[in-house]
Amino acid sequence: MPSSPQHQRAAVASAPATTAVSRTSPYLSEVDFIDFVYKPHTLTAMVILVSTLFALWKWQHLPGGDMLSSVKLGLAAAAWVFVVFGTIHLPDGLMVRPHPIFWRFILSIAILYLMLIAFLTFQDLATVKQLFAWYDPIHTVVHPEQSYANDCRLSTPEEPYKFWTTIFDIFLLAHSMGYWAKMVVIRDWRIVTAVSIGFELVEVTFQHQLPNFKECWWDHVICDVLICNGGGTVLGYLTLKLFGAKPYHWARLEDIPTLKGKAQRVLKQFTPRSFDAYNWHMFQSAKRFTQVCLLLTVFTMNEINCFTMKNILNQKPTYHLVPMRLVMWGFLAVPGLREYYCYISDPTVKRLGTFAWVGTIALFMETVFIAKMRVEGGYFTEPTPASIGIPWIIAGSMMAAWVVLYFGVPCLRRSVITRLLLNVLYFGAFLVLLAMCCMANADTQWGLEEFNAFVKEHRLWES
Known about the structure:
Blueprint: H1 5-13, E1 21-24, E2 27-30, H2 42-60, H3 67-89, H4 100-121, H5 125-135, H6 162-167, H7 170-186, H8 189-205, H9 217-244, H10 259-267, H11 286-312, H12 321-345, H13 354-377, H14 386-408, H15 416-440, H16 448-458
Antiparallel strand pairs: 1-2
């Protein structure tokens, strides 16, 4: 006869503190916290849901309402019904802090977003623009993309402290916080640094299509890679060291004698219960290399989609939907990446977790939506210049050769000469991309004229 939930919680309570988490399938709870907050409260949620729907219904009948307002309110009510249902009834993932209900709420929002993107994908560009204009008429205003490479001087007579004012820009602070979050989520500074440098390569690669990607060399190297992304990565590393070195001894709340101790325990509910290190082992095997490369691709595509979507939908970077999307993806990445890591690292895990599954499909649908709108609207159709295309072909060929030789012929790693060849291919690919950045960046353009003349003379590239 299976034990009751109370017996399961009692059994877990007698276990070590680090394992004091109970799963009454499909829900999680902590046996050393308040039992009340882990009870379902389905009837209470039902009353709250009905009350809010009734309030919205009364709002709909206020004087001055029109059909468009009623449609907006009805869609909001339908979304609210699903969010409440999902927050109560969707299964839990692997995250227990601050409360499983919070992560069920995030999953509900992500599923709604996935359904919205799937719906928009089946509309034409004119319909999409009309829908967003109904949501907010500001979408009918075309906002020109800002270029950050119009004047690349570090100091000017008009702005003697131009470099420092650029560093303390609010967007650069957002970049730092973003890479702090990436480091806390990925938990490997090498992977995060690869994401950072990879996106700078993306900016140089697509700067002829998105003026927003045009930046000065010092903006790429000093502001982005070193100060913002690097600084955020270092802060994330220190955060991991703090939580990783912290002893976790959890006592049941009712067993804490003092009011101060109980208050401290409640505040600790908003800190991680445990902090496991991630060992990605990127070069362990061809399969593992591919899995980590897929992770890098997902993070890079997510950032590219942010810029391309706001360009297509005529949204400024400060428009509320842009940061809301980033916040949703940030919270979704926490359990999603945990589930992905367990899926590729633990042989006993046979299914990709719900958060990772929803996040992957949502990102895929985002990319399909952008590609469809690009074709219909003629976005991002500027031809790729030779200074971008040729270096990528060379670097891609060198990296492909390295992958085949390194993983396909393992015996090559034993010889000094063949290891040298592998290093030449591996690091040579990155040197080619570095040369591309120096040649094709908006303000450096080192050797660009000579390269273009050579390409034109030998007819190596057709734009």
